[in-house]
């Protein structure tokens, strides 16, 4: 997307300030710009499109409700990230208990849907599932740093811990994943 | 792995959101935005915590929006779209970035439009390069970040800490296991072995009789990953030692009706190698086979012991005391109602034919055996657990079978939360007069959820007290966590069985369904007091993990194994009669030979080798009742050949197991002797199990050492 038109777009922070001041179009633009990333984050955490869409919608609504408080002290992206992250984690925590399988989830369990032909996909799936099966803090650290590609410092600020703790979670997670994934392989 | 694999998380395809979902989300957000603006206190810049923003309104808006796109994405779209998404992911795997982009190109027109509308207003905007084109910058970072923002390798010091922690953890469950009741020195020894593991595994072959295969993979995962099958974990237990009757006349143990070990041994032998010594449990090998011991008359007398004393085939001076116990066989009409929950591991590793498909076929056959009144529920567990079937009467068999058919493998294992769900369902359809049981089918680990075996165990113990039992059906090799499964099944008053073929699944689930599912006595403990005037030394073959303390026998609080309808349980002691001994232990030089002090029963007991006591509770009873039997000379056979075929066959199996374990007590007994002993004792063998055993002995004979 090295579209030059894109480079002409206003910065997030400017849009956000306008949106905070009540500019409807600025806000719409921000949302449109960030929806996919928010959705992707949600999917990375929960692994199901339906749920990711629900989470993303919830994040968008929350953004609308709190954009007025955006002061511009932090990058809009970080701000939105933190909101998306907390929403996703809350959602996952709330849904951890008894979950009746949706027909669409059933579909993914059906024999053959995950058969030999899809081995490649499964490989990625295994990694996702292994990561999602980590203890929450390790999972969050891995997803923020590796999947979302944040720095340790950014991850630390979102997780509300020190950078050193992030490193520690990552270290623990790698150890655990190694065992998990080599079993699968 | 690991950094490289983890980096791929960033580029792995994410299934794109549906356009309908996106526009619904955006319009919901815009509505919320408007609402916020129009609210009087919402003048720009006012700080408004989210919680004050009219939660009721917000919720209804969200519901509305959801319905909106739920309509757009109708059921048809849902069913069609899912496989399509799958397809997309697959096709685009070579170009993962494309799939991430796909949705953006879709709605870029929307963005452009917004941009066009905005141009006037945004003229004065300065363009800050790092903030421009966020979507692009993102992807840029994806590429750059690989080198730039990556964590330095984690410090070395945490490794040491966890290693220590893991060791403690590894030893803990064993030490605290109430059923296995492993004597404390054992726990200590195990802990020592864990730490000694590294050196032991790197140096030379393992000492005979000391199975060190899988104490616990967590301590040193690498070592286990090297050896393929060695990821299977077993609790290693020293063989029961020869005990001197004078010093230690009483032997106490819990019965064990598990059979997992036999199937595991068979799998290894069929694959052309000898099984790891720690995987061989003599009692489970013996109890794999059905024996036609005399049956009790009524359910009030739940089982009947039959004792035979024969010369030992591997040590002419010794005798074997063969104790066969047969459980009462419930007629189908007397059978209580069953409330079953199948808890099925659907993680990715269950995909091979010998795992999930095997489990499904086995359960299908089991469902055919159930009565219309029984209920079945199905819980799956993978990356998250789910209910695949709410409790359903077997009269609605089609529904149950359909739910079974739908199951497929995919995902990682979250066993513990699955188990919680299963208990919840079992409680929901709890039948106070019936049998409430969870059947867990898995290929191994519970790798998330309740973290330690100890937590799981205490959960299972609590539920057992509430009347819900747990059985385990293990499948697959390579990741089979035998130790954990044993512990779980023992704490859940259940059976751990291992199925490697459909025939085996049928045997466990169908033929033994009644015995596995319908216990007729629980907490069955056996205690034998040997008569020191007749028996100088004794040794119990197997049951190492089932040893109980002498005082546990009369303590109804101490848990022990169950006997199901029609089950048989066999225990074999090898005894050295007084006067016949080849002195495996020398008399003490400085102490007078310890004469038994004033025996309670003296002269009359001269024909008694020992006294057998069995304590058990009826399924719903809290207190145990006692059955006893004197082991007299009248029960002795002059030669092994005079004993019933079942006794001879069980003896052959015991000998085979001892051989596989590298027992030091066999003086010259070989696989050929096993064949010679078992061959003529095959009997009817309607399912070919005994013939199969003979084949296994031949395989073991030719297997590379």
Short structural description:
The complex is a heterodimer of chains A (185) and B (705). With 185 residues, chain A is mainly α.
Overview of this protein structure:
- The complex is a heterodimer of chains A (185) and B (705).
- Chain A is mostly helical and 185 residues long.
- Chain A is built from 10 helices and no strands.
- Chain A has helices at residues 4-7, 12-20, 24-46, 49-66, 76-95, 103-109, 119-132, 136-147, 152-159, 163-184.
- In chain A, α8 runs antiparallel to α9 and α8 (136-147) packs across α10 (163-184).
- The longest helix of chain A is centred in the N-terminal third of the chain and has 23 residues, at 24-46.
- The model of chain A is unreliable at 1-7 and 97-123 (pLDDT under 50).
- Chain B is α+β, with helices and mostly antiparallel strands and 705 residues long.
- Chain B is built from 21 helices and 16 strands.
- In chain B, the strands form 3 sheets. In chain B, strands 7-6-5-8-9-10 form a 6-stranded mixed sheet, sandwiched between helices. Chain B has a 5-stranded antiparallel sheet with strand order 1-12-14-4-3.
- In chain B, α12 (356-369) packs antiparallel against α13 (397-406).
- Chain B is elongated, with a radius of gyration of 32 Å.
- Chains A and B meet through α1, α2, α3, α4 and α6 of A and α1, α2, α3, α4 and α5 of B.
Largest sheet of chain B: 6 strands, mixed
Low-confidence stretches of chain A: 1-7, 97-123
**Basic shape of chain B:** elongated
Taking Cα atoms only, what radius of gyration of chain A do you get, to the nearest Å?
Answer: 18 Å
Which band does the percent of strand residues of chain A land in? under 5%
Overall pLDDT score of chain A = 75
Rounded Rg of chain B: 32 Å
Shape annotation of chain A:
globular
Q: How many β-strands of chain B, per DSSP?
A: 16
Which quaternary structure do these chains form? heterodimer
